Amino acid sequence: MTRTATHARRPRWRAAGVAVACAAVACAAAAADNDAAAEVSAGGVVTFGLRSDHHADALALGLMGRGHWHRREWAQVSPRAGDNLAQIDDEARLGWQQRGGAFDGWQIAVLARSQATLVASHDALALAAQVARGHTLAADTDWQTRVRLRAFTGAGLALGRAQALGFVPAPGRWQAAWEVQALALGRWRQRDIDGPVHLDAATQRYGFALASNEADNRLNLPFQQPAGRHGAGLLLAGRVDWQGEASPAGWTPWARLALRDGGWLRWRGLPQQQATLDTATAGTDADGFLVYAPLIQGQNRQSTVTRWQPWRAALAAGVELPDGQRLGGRLDTVPGWHAALPSLTWQRPAASATASGWTGLGLAAEWQLHQRRLTLGVDWRGLSLQAGADRLGGDARSRVWALAWRQAL
User: Fold this and answer.
1) What residues are paired with 396 via a beta bridge?
2) What are phi and psi of 374, to 5 degrees?
3) Which DSSP state fits 79?
4) In angstroms, how far is the first alpha carbon of the chain from the final one?
5) Could you confirm whether the keyword Signal appears in this record (predicted)?
6) Is the distance from CB of 74 to CB of 58 less than 8 angstroms?
7) Is 265 helix (H, G, I), strand (E, B) or coil?
8) What is the gyration radius of the CA atoms in the chain, in angstroms?
9) Contact 297, 281 (CB under 8 A)
10) Residue 118, class by beta-carbon neighbours within 10 Å (0-12 exposed, 13-18 middle, 19+ buried)?
11) Whole-number Cα distances in Å, 191 to 74, 92, 150
12) Is the Cα torsion angle 52, 55, 59, 60 positive or negative in sign?
């Protein structure tokens, strides 16, 4: 059942109220690429992993953790040209991978996740910074604002399997893996803001014509009915790996296609709000004179919402050299972002390092072009560590770290 209420009011509109919060990209690739290097006996493998990937184009990560922003924080926003991306992608996981027997290749894990993606136009962020700084502009100025925020947190179970694809009628070795995640959601937030903003230089007054659509389980609406305490999520992931035949020169081509986080999110009685702001709304006063005043008009409702969660994709390819080193590149896609995010990768897996006399030490490096981030990884006896940033210190705008551990039983 849907409950609807309409409202119209004339409160103060905070011009800097453009949501820019968070950031994200998966950061445990080194542990996944080293699966073949783990020497395990029949039985199974206990797996444990932590990863955290935070990125923001327009501001330092240290500002993102503050719950309430004031003029000082907004004044430090410095957007790039075009759209700006911010992400958070965190996960903790404890699992079991079966080796041998009837359930060979099956995996089960408990996990907790937090993910958020924000895509905002340059104008939206530049406007927020301009208002916060209070600078006087000499000419009339227009901004076209556009903000898209998608976020959820949840915990639950993951079930999957990895196996060789010996039946594929194509040259080379083929392998595949898939996973299903069933999550209980603790937070779901979705926010869209669109519309033009104009500054009259003569009066230094702003004119807004904005539309906002928000769905958030923490919204407090007038006459709100009880909503579901938790939502539900069903997310899917899949991966296909290919390794070709060695060339006469000794190098071997490889490729990988991976999809993740496609699926459904659902919340019963989710509070939702639609609102428009027009600072030049015409009306008449008690004497019949025409006046213009800010007006917010909107609609509140509650309903059961089911939303398709778009896929995140990664396409990687490269070559493996005779000494075991792997060189390649990768393209990642993020829902709502207009282009692929490219990376350059290098890896010396632990298995080949042992053959070269490195006593089982694996090394990896990655350069992500959009994030401007260098990430280094080390793998030794089932323990993988990864860390990267675009710069050192508190001004970093992109940071990733991961810890993965595998123990055969």
Assistant:
1) none
2) -105, 130
3) P
4) 52
5) yes
6) no
7) strand
8) 25
9) no
10) buried
11) 19, 26, 7
12) positive
Question: Residue 116 in contact with residue 22, Cβ under 8 Å?
Answer: yes
Q: C-alpha angle 390/25/306, rounded to 5°?
A: 150
Structure tokens given for 8:
């119209």
Quick: pLDDT tens for 271-325: 999 999 888 655 556 665 545 566 778 899 999 999 999 999 999 999 999 988 9
Kindly report, residue by residue over 8-45, the tens digit of the pLDDT.
433 333 333 333 333 333 333 334 344 443 444 458 99
* CA-wise closest residue to 114 among 220, 180, 31, 26: 26
Q: Residue ranges of the alpha helices (H) in 6-152? A: 29-33, 61-64, 71-75, 122-133
Alpha helices in 234-377, H assignment, sequence order:
350-355
103 phi and psi angles, rounded to 5 deg:
-105, 30
In 3-state terms the chain splits into helix, strand, coil percentages (rounded to 5) of 10, 60, 35
Whole-model pTM above 0.90? no
For 23, 189, 330, 382, 385, the CA distances from 255, given in Å and listed in that order, are 28, 35, 10, 24, 23
Coil, helix or strand at residue 80: coil
Q: What's the gap between Cα 130 and its chain centre?
A: 27
Distance, in Å, from the CA atom of 363 to the CA atom of 343, rounded to the nearest integer, reads 17
* Contact between residue 255 and residue 328 where contact means Cβ atoms under 8 Å apart: no
**pLDDT tens for each residue of the chain, 409 residues long:** 444 444 443 333 333 333 333 333 333 333 434 444 344 445 899 999 999 999 999 999 988 766 566 677 788 899 999 999 999 999 999 999 998 888 899 999 999 999 999 999 999 999 999 888 888 888 999 999 999 999 999 999 999 999 999 888 888 899 999 999 999 999 999 999 999 999 888 888 888 899 999 999 999 988 888 889 999 999 999 999 999 999 998 899 999 999 999 999 999 999 999 999 888 655 556 665 545 566 778 899 999 999 999 999 999 999 999 988 999 999 999 999 999 999 999 999 887 555 455 557 999 999 999 999 999 999 998 899 999 999 998 899 999 999 999 999 8
Token representation of residue 170:
């194509």
